[in-house]
Amino acid sequence: MSDDLTHNEELTRRVLRIIAETQRKDPAQVTIDSSFEELGIDSMDGVNIVFALENEFDINVPDEEVKNIRNVRDMVEGVRTLVEQRNLQSDTPSDPAPAAS
Amino acid sequence: MRRVVVTGIGVICGLGKDREAFQKALREGRCGIGPITNTECHDLRFRNGAEVRGYDPNDHFSPKEADMIDRFAQFAVVAAREAVCQSGVEWNTDLRENSAIVTGSCVGGQATENQGFWDVYKMGKTRVHPMTIPKTMANAGASAISLEFGITGPAFTIATACSSSAHAIGQAFTMVRSGMADLAITGGSEAPFSYGILKAWEAMRVVSPTLCRPFSRDRNGMVLGEGGAMMVIESLDHALARGAKPIAEIAGFGMSSDAHHITQPSAEGAAKAVRMALKDARIAPEQVGYVNAHGTGTTVNDITETKALHLAFGDHAKHLAISSTKAMHGHTLGAAGALESAAAIVALSTGILPATIHFNECDPECDLDYIPNCPRKADVEYAISNSFAFGGLNIVLAWRKFQ
């Protein structure tokens, strides 16, 4: 399930859709290769998109990461990394079963 | 037009609970920022703020009075009392009728409102406290000051985000200068430490997880603060006639709006406000010796403000002594313009310019003299205090040493 989400194109499509929705743009305009300049996305728009992505993927994006995002690809890769980290954490049992004696 | 002077100042903020403590902290370059203790913040990306530590409403108000006004309005009254006390004003019917009150606040009593909303939205309660509306209204500080001193002249509140109290002082200044009022109590107050408000600031991603380092290359955002600063201003003639001792003169002010972006500042808009302040004060750029900067410690503000000072002052920019005292008392939002004006007046009257503390390294894009880390002795005649609000609303107040 987590592999499906992080490695197939589904995650990319969802990020592109979120960007288009928050920016009120035609989804066809938003591609993985779009720069923020092309899409007219400024820093406040970036913060708004990250907010929507955090809700969509149940992730938390650190402030420092947000400052470094420059284009759609950065955003997709950033979300992929955080989703993978989240999945790793949720796959790790919080209360490991005791080793067989 | 009449000359307008300051005859009393009152301050309560993260640096201390009165003017004397504030002045001492500025002189020593002490930091009033630390872990936020009076508000839930376990899941915030920041933990620090400039709280008024050890504040007990019962030291200033009867229990019933304290129940009637939010913390932000309490700060307004506490600061106004200290300013009035220093000014030596003796109230009579005439003066009460001819005095104005103009305050600034950004969030008003939203902390009280949050509590009421929490009760009904989350706790399943069916009613909100009946004082929620009068405690939340942004003019609660102005109203409480009016009640405190029996002032019956014009009283109102200005809400222009981080420029609120500077706009309030500018407005009060025009009223006294024009003769509409003989005296005014003006300034601002803020108490934004409430979980919902802090979450909203967190969402903007402009708050530092550590400290406020204005103009330093490693700066990473602002730190919020609470407090209040009020001043008594009056016409010079009025002050001298009653034997009052002026502390400083308001030389002029300038305002502008960027018409650029709701959160991104514009150097040209800020520079325009500086130029207009100098023009209103009828001074040349070379006469300004100290700038209390808006200096929030965000990447963008500090670069833009530096550009604005270059634009407005030209060659003189590199000779200006500039500091942001927000590194010490935090960003007090609607109280910032008044608190920082108080700092500028202290600098003029004591001859000690406060430092920009926590300054670690020079930023090539912030290439002016920010008085890094150590307060500086300097005899300065004119100082300006900059306030640049979200929404692109700018105001610059020009202060003159009284001599």
Describe the structure.
The complex is a heterodimer of chains A (101) and B (403). By secondary structure, chain A is mostly helical. Chain A has a single domain, classed as ACP-like (Non-ribosomal Peptide Synthetase Peptidyl Carrier Protein, Chain A). Chain A has six helices and no strands. Chain A has helices spanning 2-7, 9-23, 36-39, 43-57, 63-68, 72-91. With 403 residues, chain B is of the alpha/beta class. Chain B is 36% helix and 20% strand. Chain B contains 14 helices and 14 strands. Chain B has helices spanning 19-28, 63-68, 71-87, 93-97, 110-121, 132-136, 140-149, 164-178, 195-204, 236-241, 267-281, 299-313, 326-329, 336-350; strands spanning 4-13, 34-35, 48-49, 99-104, 155-158, 183-190, 227-235, 248-257, 288-292, 321-323, 352-353, 376-377, 382-389, 393-401. In chain B, the strands form three sheets. Chain B has a ten-stranded mixed sheet, sandwiched between helices. A two-stranded antiparallel ribbon of chain B has the order 2-3. In chain B, helix 3 (71-87) packs across helix 7 (140-149), helix 8 packs across helix 14 (336-350) and helix 11 (267-281) packs across helix 12 (299-313). The longest helix of chain B has 17 residues, at 71-87. The chains are: A mainly alpha (101), B alpha/beta (403).
CATH topology of chain A: Non-ribosomal Peptide Synthetase Peptidyl Carrier Protein, Chain A
Separate helix tally of chain B: 14
Give me the oligomer status: heterodimer
Beta percentage of chain B is: 15-25%
The CATH architecture of the largest domain in chain B comes to 3-Layer(aba) Sandwich
Number of DSSP strand runs of chain A:
0
Indicate the CATH architecture of chain A: Orthogonal Bundle
CATH homologous superfamily descriptor of chain A: ACP-like
CATH fold annotation of the largest domain in chain B: Peroxisomal Thiolase, Chain A, domain 1
How many structural domains does the protein architecture of chain B include?
Answer: 2
Kindly state the percentage of residues in helix of chain A: 55-70%
